[in-house]
What we know:
The structure holds two protein chains of two kinds.
Chain A: E1 2-12, E2 17-28, E3 33-37, H1 44-51, E4 59-64, E5 67-68, H2 74-84, E6 85-88, H3 100-110, H4 115-128, H5 144-156, E7 162-166, H6 174-189, E8 193-197, H7 201-204, E9 209-214, E10 217-223
Parallel strand pairs in A: 3-8, 3-9, 6-7, 7-8
Antiparallel strand pairs in A: 1-2, 1-4, 4-5, 9-10
Helix pairs in contact in A: 3-4, 3-5, 4-5, 5-6
Chain B: H1 2-15, H2 17-46, E1 57-66, E2 69-73, H3 80-87, E3 91-97, E4 101-107, E5 110-119, H4 123-126, E6 131-133, E7 145-149, H5 150-157, H6 160-163, E8 167-170, E9 174-182, E10 195-198, H7 199-205, H8 207-210, E11 219-224, H9 230-237, H10 240-244, E12 250-256, E13 266-267, E14 270-271, H11 276-303, H12 305-318, H13 322-359, H14 369-395, H15 399-404, H16 411-448, E15 457-461, H17 466-478, E16 483-489, E17 499-500, E18 503-505, E19 516-521, H18 525-529, E20 533-536, E21 549-553, H19 554-560, E22 569-572, E23 575-583, E24 598-602, E25 609-614, H20 619-633, E26 641-643, H21 644-650, H22 653-687, H23 689-697, H24 702-736, H25 747-773, H26 777-782
Parallel strand pairs in B: 5-10, 7-9, 19-24, 21-23
Antiparallel strand pairs in B: 1-2, 1-11, 1-12, 3-11, 4-5, 4-8, 6-9, 7-10, 8-9, 13-14, 15-25, 15-26, 16-25, 17-19, 18-22, 20-23, 21-24, 22-23
Amino acid sequence: MIQTKELSKVYRTDEVETTALNKVDIQIKEGEFVSIMGPSGCGKSTLLNILGLIDSPSSGSYQFLDTEVANFSERQRSKLRKQNIGFIFQSFNLIDELTVFENVELPLIYNQVSSSDRKKRVEETLEKMNMMHRAKHFPQQLSGGQQQRVAVARAIINDPKLILADEPTGNLDTSNGNDVMKTLVALNEAGATIVMVTHSQFCAEFGDRIIRLLDGQVVTENLLKKQKQML
Amino acid sequence: MIEHAIKLALRNFMRHKNSFFINLSGLSTGLACTLLIFLWVRDELRVDKIFENDDRLFQVMEHQDYSDGILTTNSTPGPLGMSLEEEIPEIELAATYLYPASYNLQVGEEKLRAVGTYAGKNYFKIFDYPLMTGSAVDILAGANNIAISETLAGSLFGSVEEAMGQSIEYEGSDIYSVSGVFKDLPSNSTQQFDFLLPYEPFYQENIEWMSNWESNFPNTAIRLKKGAQAAVVNGKIKDFIKGKAENSRVSLFLQSYSGRYLYGRYQNGKQVGGRIEYVWLFSLIALFILLIACINFMNLSTARASRRAKEVGVKKTIGAGKKALVIQFLSESIILSFLSLLIAVGLAGLALPQFNLITAKEIELHFDPGMIGVLVAISLITGIIAGSYPAFYLSSFRPISVLKGTLRSSMGELWVRRGLVVFQFALSFILIVAVVIVYKQIQFIQDQGPGYDKEQLVYFNRDGRLEEQSTAFFTKAKTMDGVQNISSIGHNLVGQQNNTRGVEWDGKDPEMTLLFENVRINYDLLETIGVEFKEGRSFSRSFGRDSSAVIFNEKAVEIMGMKDPIGQRVRIHGEEKEIIGVVKDFHFQSFRQEINPLFFQLSPENSWFMMASLEKGKEKKGLENLKSLYEEFNPGFAFDFEFLDEQYARQYAAEQRVASLSRYFAGFAILISCLGLFGLSVFTAERRKKEIGIRKVLGASVTQILSLLTKEFAQIVLWSILIGFPIAYVLSKNWLDRFVYRIDLAIWFFVLTAVLMILIAVVTVSSQAFQAARVDPKKYLRSE
């Protein structure tokens, strides 16, 4: 599903040149659950953003669903993104002015799903995330765990092939964090490909393998025994 | 999508009440101003466009060629209309009409004064004012016909139906019979009168002077045949009068009848605008005010961008295209603009009575489809202009930088925002300077005065028995309390009214043609109005031969090139006259014009107006006494007087209206600009709280921080003054150049305005700056 070759990202300001990613080669198959780890500033988020088609690489190749997307325009990336990728953020990134229902509904609107269909699917998804009773609330009326559940609901509403999670448990306590991990595992078992950036070794081990980054380069990749039974 | 956008817009308004309120009040004030100006402009453009054959109606105009330039006038020879109709095949109809004045009418015991004039028999065919009874064909056909207005019919006879065929006594002598009643003339008709008498009989009665092709008196209007070209007719009539009178220096041309209202100013034979300039000026002001309000919206929206950035980032990540976001932000501004429109319509409705008072109009707010269309269009355009920059700016955020929190206002945006505020304040500066200068010039005209004591002068018709017994009237009036002096004069001394080129003197260049104002007066007139003498004396009863004496103004003496004018002789219309005095120049025309040569002749019989000077502080008493004396002489006549200074001020009515209107609009412009500045200061204060916190920790005092914050805004205002200054200077100079007699464009007008603007700006931002300066540093340092 994902294949990068010598993927690099360089940030330039007037005086300084910073290499965030340095010739990264990774491969992720459909149905895999991959964790990415590394210290702050190692390029984890940059990699995730490029994989998620929010950002474009400075050089190298990125094949997403067998298509070379490294040189895609913003418009092309946007189109591909909204159909195939769901995002979960550390800080939830819900829109404060919209209710739970409307936040979850948003991707469907941008994918031009009809209004009756939208209602059905949002309800189903909220039901699945056990958030239906909060549908009319605004994000600031919810706890962190609840907000993240809404964010997850929003990420999966479109049945994306790829789910990208950027420290999804970073702002949550252990119990809420575990809930989110459970959900991700369930989604993975249902067929979704998941790439997750995390600082927590514990969370990382829910994945099939861990990619470790240091200074913009992949240092190790280790396959894991499944830890799902721990939950 | 749209539904989502609307919902989000409304919630955003609710959440950010401050900026919503600032935007709403700014935009609605701006829209209200624009709406009022739109109504005014529309009304101006519709003046006289009330006749069915508007495109075929023309006023016959004259260019009169003199040594000192071409004078353009609508006064024409008396027989012109009749001859044009006969001789020029393209002309279907012509009507001659005189300038309306106030006359005494009497029916039985009912006496009143009404405004009327003489008009040719085709008048109602050309100007199709709706008739209630009578027909356009013969309403003015009979020698004793009188056409009266609906209101006049009501006050004289009780109703329109009663009026037909009834008799009316005119000026205490002639009897006319009502041949028709016309509807009261609409306020957007430049001709205004209560009754019309037939012109042709009047012409016959006065044929001796009315038939003279070289004298100009009535107006002539014509209607062209269908398909006839005005240009062709212009070619044919150009030398029409020269064909009738060999010595004539007049060339004729047609001006569109409805066009003459807006395009009425001629300079040396060239059309140089007129009221249309004010139409443009106010349209521009409306646009400026709206722009200023739009800029507020742009500034506040982009300043608040960081708060919206997350929303944009998330939406883009999820898959929102730029287009969807642009639509969302644009609909937000358009919704705001329509909300403002609702308030603006209310505000305009409230302001309309006052607005009508200032503009001397009768504008009403009617919501016909056309009007609604215009309102919707204005709001839509306003919404789009106001929303465009924020929409494209916000929607172009890169989601990655938003979500990473690295979004920072670039210097570029900061400059755009400052630039917009500079633009706003530059506009406000120009408007304020304009207001100050227009005000000073009008005040200058008022203070300077014409050169005689216009304040206490009152004049009224010398009619009825006063025509015969004026001397008795004078004798009695002079003894009355409150009356200082009284005499009579041919016309009221405001504007060029009676001029002649029949002045000859020794050594005059035979080629030279010059117009002299010819004022016929009675004894004591010059003393009554208080004109100052440069040399010589006034007319006096102690000199028997003063009927062959003449008094010139300085300008006339200068033009005639006389060293010692007193005692010299000139010929006026061939008659020998001796110069007995020279008066100092005074303004009998508007300050726009150079003072022209003028002479006074003693001619009590042709002095049709009584002119009295009242004692200062006893004006009321004096007037009452004059009124009772007048009624004693003229029982049943209504005493209809006018103060000369009111008539004098009327020459500048347009300027005065512009002055007071621009005062209001400049006020609104600065108010809206300040709203924006205030909004921006709220934002800046908030944005810089952390910086202020650090500064305070490092030992900055409240005063230092205060000056830090205010300085930024003061600089913006300074820039706007720098930009506004040259533009304001050029515009004011242009306007002042229209006046031959004008104030100097002093630098202090600009300095004063500048100081005022800086003061206003500082006051506007200081409350926020003060609040920010007093922040508790630890509170804001902790938050990041």
